[in-house]
Amino acid sequence: MNMQMSSEAAFRAEIAEFCKQNLDPEMRRLSDLGLSVGQDMAKDWQQRLVARGWGAPAWDAQWGGAGWDMRKLFIFEEEMAAHGAPQVATFNIKMIGPILQAHGDAAQQAHFLPRALRMDDVWCQGYSEPGAGSDLASLQTRAERDGDDYIVNGTKIWTSGGHLADHMFCLVRTSREGRRQGGISFLLTDLATPGITRRPIRHFYGAHVFNQFFFDNVRVPVANRVGQENAGWGIAKSLLEHERLFSARHTEARRKLGRLTRLSREVKIGNRPAIEDAQFRDDLAKRMIELRALENATMRALERLVDDGGIGPYASVLKLRGIEVNQRLDRAIVQLLGPDALPAEAAWEGDALDGLIPDEARNAAESRYWWRGPAIAGGSQEVQRTIITKHILNL
Amino acid sequence: MRFAASEDEVMVEDMLDRVLSAARDSAPRIDGQAPRPAPEELRSKLGDLGVWGAWLPDSAGGSDGGPRLLMTLARGLGRVPAHHGLIGGCVLPGVLLARSRGAEAAALARRIATGAMPVALAAMEPGARWDMSAPQTRAERDGDGYRLNGTKIHVAEGATAETFILSAGEGEGVSLFLVPAGTPGLTVAAYPATDGSQWASLRISDVTLPATARLAGPGEGAAWLEQAFTLAAFAAASEILGSCEAALRQTVEYLGTREQFGKALAANQALQFRAADLHTDIEMLRSQVLGAANALSQGYSLRARSDVAAAMAMAVQTGDLVAREAIHLHGAIGMTRELGIGYHLLRADVLSRWLGSAEHFRATFLRAAEEEEEAA
């Protein structure tokens, strides 16, 4: 056990050293504030990770994976977040990469995996449709065979980062027979293909976060179908089990808590630092305690994953609570800032606020607005409650 | 440290389940209550099986089971309503007696491990809430011994104790004394708490004690008390966890069987979601109680103290919520003493009134977490 602990400490130290050597302070600052680091910085960071052999640690070794066990993968993610490393190319590394390794054919793997690893291609996910949100299986975008191509017609919506991507993996309907889930296929699409148009969707706080894509007689080669025809549903659901540990998004919550505690020494309530105010201290303790419990819950999930190979519906418990914890931390930051949470993120582009309010006020309100989304996406909180009801409580 | 139960813990859990359900099934319905195990029999049975004091060190009659076994025991007891007396009669005096090096203390600890309750701790005072660091009860030197004057209140298991551990200010510090219940000048008055358990107040008027009665001197007493109440809070959080688990299980069963408007209550999404939220709260409490058990197992550190305070802050809130929801989701039958689901609320309340509110434990948590950060 001691040996295990000391090798774990050595691994954590190795990651800390890598971040010290490679993480640009500006990049760290932006990602600590919950801001995107931009495509250039993201690509630069990914190159550094790839050079170290850490570009996609969970992948198979032949495609650049690190060959770590689940515990080590978990520590890597946690430690990277703790040092302020940005999450880049998540759709490349965490979604399409593992899916192609599990379900893609040799040609797809050889072409797409190295490009995804290096971010030569940037992927986005085309699952949701205007009529298919939480009820994803009701999706209608159809792909009809025409020789060696599919002709795709329909629309995909809520595509996060679609404006930064050049490729989309999407779910399309290839059959209307039998179960709705049984008529869905998984297609890889080059967004430069004629017939694809994109409409930006502004978030309610103003940022360009989402997109809608329209497919008008778009030709996609049959060679770009992953797996068998009508087998797409199972492929889309086969997210790597260790990623489900991060359903709680506890690493993001830990960063927010860091921001809250730093601000509590800087922001004053009644001429004293907030950290000396009784009401604030009680609120801070609430946030700290629920995050500590969430981290313990995540460690329990990791233990179960290592023991049993999966965590089952427990992931729904983690997601349900983890998003609430994140949302409440965002709210606490905004409340602590008070009037200083008023300026929009764009206010930092000029010098109007220089030296007048804490730099960590930047993007505080926007983060709160952005975090309304995860409670709706990826299976809404109500979908998670239904899973808990049906599969844990057996009601 | 692992979170999953060890083989020993699984064995103790099974044993507890058997003993508790047997005790409950054979218990009479007294005064319209849901059947409840008789406390003395329950304790002596668990003492005979070596479970009651297993968490105590070997030298104090236990088997070095530590916090994990204490958690297992308290959690199991929480699942079945009973005035078991674990915290007041075993944990609080047990921690203090185990820290002492005296022969009398060791003998008392060994009796406690058998399931007897010879000792109660009298540390709380009127109007002082949960602050036990500056007692008004004073100990003055008197010849070779001590003379004590003051008042104590909310003494758990005090109505039946043979001996009290009394805290008293001595000089600038807090000392602890062993005082037999029949000592002249000591008046014990029993009263019931809202959950039906028996408590006592103590009036201490010129009680004289030999020098050997002092269990801990003024340089030690406050720290000993803090450790004893930390372990008590840990046991209480574990008990509330067990109580929540039992209350939700019983409620979910009821939702599945009770029909209204031509369908099971469980068919209503509003009720399903309430149950799902309770389950999520309990999962978080379980995770934190386990985290606290593991931290305590590695020693009585600042981290262990903050983890216990976090666990109890959550337990107070979750215990209250789950108990209220369990009553409500049962409908009118939930209001009755006969069904007894309301006992979970009575018990969670008493534990919180006694050991500290959620706010109290959050403040304790934050101070320990800050000290820990400064030390790092």
TrEMBL record, chain B:
Alphabetical list of InterPro entries matching this protein: Acyl-CoA_Oxase/DH_mid-dom, Acyl-CoA_Oxase/DH_mid-dom_sf, AcylCo_DH-like_C, AcylCo_DH/oxidase_C, AcylCoA_DH/ox_N_sf, AcylCoA_DH/oxidase_NM_dom_sf
Keyword Flavoprotein: yes
Residue ranges constituting the Acyl-CoA oxidase/dehydrogenase middle domain according to the UniProt record: 120-206
Domain Acyl-CoA dehydrogenase/oxidase C-terminal: 219-365
Assigned keywords, A-Z: FAD, Flavoprotein, Oxidoreductase
GO molecular function: acyl-CoA dehydrogenase activity; flavin adenine dinucleotide binding
Residue spans crossing the bilayer: none
SUPFAM superfamilies named in the record: Acyl-CoA dehydrogenase C-terminal domain-like (SSF47203), Acyl-CoA dehydrogenase NM domain-like (SSF56645)
Domain of life per record: Bacteria
Listed cofactors: FAD
Family that this chain belongs to: Belongs to the acyl-CoA dehydrogenase family.
Stated name of the protein: Acyl-CoA dehydrogenase
